[in-house]
Each structure stands twice: as C-alpha cells, then as structure tokens.
Amino acid sequence: RQSTTTNDRRRQKTNPTKRTQLPVMIRSTILPRAARLTPMLGRPMAAVAPWTTATTTTKDHCHDDQNNDDTVAESSLSDPRIGATRSFGLAAPKHQFKGGRRSFRSSAVVRKSSSPTVPDMATAQAMPLSLEQMDNTTLVTLGAMGEASALEEMLKRHIMTVDNVSYETACETFEGIEKVNGEGLYLLKFPYQVGIATALIAGFASFPLVFDLGTAEWFNQNYVTTDVPESEDLETVLEVGAWTWNWMEPPLGQVSFFLLCLQFSRAQMDNLGVKPYTTRVKQMRAQHLADLYTQYDKKLIMDYSMSRHILGS
Predict the structure, then answer these.
(1) Which of 75, 4, 12 is nearest to 45 (CA)?
(2) Would you give the end-to-end CA distance of the chain in angstroms?
C-alpha cells in the first residue's frame, strides 16, 4: 500500500495536465467573467489584467521542469492607455507557470542618468555683481523681504520714473531724502544712549564693588555701614566677595529680576501685536518723510525709512 501511494503521488507531480488545470480554469472561466464586470467600474479589464486579452502560445508539456516554465503571454492590448505606457519604457507584465503557480515579473523602467550642467561663459558674464545690475523683479523680491539696500535701489529707480531724470540725478535726489530721514532724531536716540551708558557703567563697576577691598570699605562706610570682619577674614578676593555679597546680592538680584520681567512683557507685547518703542519711533520718522515727499509713492518711502536703523540714519 505504501508503494502504491508513493507511485500515485509521483504521477500527480509529473502529470502536467493536473498541474495546469487551475490556471486554465482561471483563464477560461474566472477572468472572462471579471472582464465583463470590470467596465461597470469604469476601468477596462486590460488595465487591470493585461493577460486577459493576450493570445498565449504554450509549448508541449514535458516532464522536464524547464519546458514547463516556457509559457509566455504576448500582449495585444487594445486599450490606448495601456499602449501609452510603452512610450515610457514600460513592458507588459509576463507571467509564467512554475510548479502549478503563476509567477509575475515586474516591468523595469529604464532611466537615463543626466549629467550635471555647468554654466557657460555667457551665463557667467550675465551674473549681476551689484544691486544696480539686478532686474526689477529681483529687486522687488528682495525689497519685500525687508532688504534695506534693495529698497534703496527701488527708491532710486522710482525717482527716475517720477522725475524723468537720469540715474545720477536720481542718486543726488536720494541723498537729500536720506539726509532728511536722519534729521531730528537726537531726542529719540537719547533713551537708547542712556540705557547703553547705564548698562556699561553698572556692569564694570560691579567688579570692584564686590571684590576690591578698598572700594568695598568706601561703599560700606558711605552707603551700608555694616560691621567689618577681622583682617584675617579679608585676605583674599573671594573672602572680600563673601563679605560684600551681603549687601550686593539684593540690588543685583532685584535688577536682574526686573530686567527679566521687562523681557517677558516685551515678548507678550509682540504676541499681541503691540508695537514697542523702537517701532513707534521708526513709524513716526517714516510718516514724516512721506509727508515731505508726497510726489513719490508713500509705501515705498515708508518702507525705505522703516528699513533704516535709527543710529545709522
């Protein structure tokens, strides 16, 4: 019985008819039915399974496995969309029978490697080296980004078109506008100058007030009047700092906390869109400049004035 069962299994394995019954049934029964139902979905069957409309030529089945793998489908597709894919180097998928199963080989797309392009002499010579050589589109783009030099060049060209003058004459007119833009800012600069001087003086004065014994004794005698430690406790700089830190810690800590609160409040003002002092000063200056030169575009004049720093004007 065991030998009979073994022989039956061998016959089933070597019988090509039984091995190809399932693929033949799929091609003859299932796929034609699917082809009739597929147009209802709005897509031809050839786009889904190109082998359904293919004419297949099958060689004689042999017991050799190599001959069983030579079943190739030659596609004769009628759908124009499938034919269009061939122009891109796509081949119709080929299927084979291996061991009673259908195997597919994916189509390969051939891509040509493109070599990097380098600029030629004409391109190199056409490259602008300054704002004066740039075209209007590039200047407007840079001006929209807030570039001060681009806005300056835009204003010069605008003066040329409004006054109908040459570029050299427009530059002279621009120099007058630039001079007016920097006038009358002494009082507006004063708060900034006071803040800079106070920060520098306080920062450098903190070192001798904390670590210098002579300065610490003078400051203690006039403003603090606390007990002076023994001389052996004031021999080093760190010992002097440990003594002076008793009265230097409160003002330094309080000032640091105050500055931290100011920074936090400024950040919240920016979040709310409230303009700080610097922005208000620039807007006042820009509005004054636009009122003096009404013959030119107001927005361009104000954008130029806003892009210039207060001290550098």
Answers:
(1) 75
(2) 109
Distance CA 310, CA 313 (A): 6
Distance, CA of 12 to CA of 27 (rounded, Å): 22
192-to-50, 188, 303 alpha-carbon distances in Å:
79, 8, 23
pTM value is 0.51
CA distances from 119 to 81, 124, 128 (A): 40, 7, 14
Q: List average pLDDT for each run of 10 residues in the chain, which is 313 residues long.
A: 55 53 61 60 48 43 44 42 42 48 49 71 87 88 89 93 93 92 80 90 92 92 90 91 92 92 90 83 89 92 88 60
Residue pair 305/182 in contact (Cβ under 8 Å)? The answer is no
C-alpha closest to that of 97 among 73, 70, 75, 74: 70
HSE-CB at 147 with a 13 A cutoff on CA atoms is 13
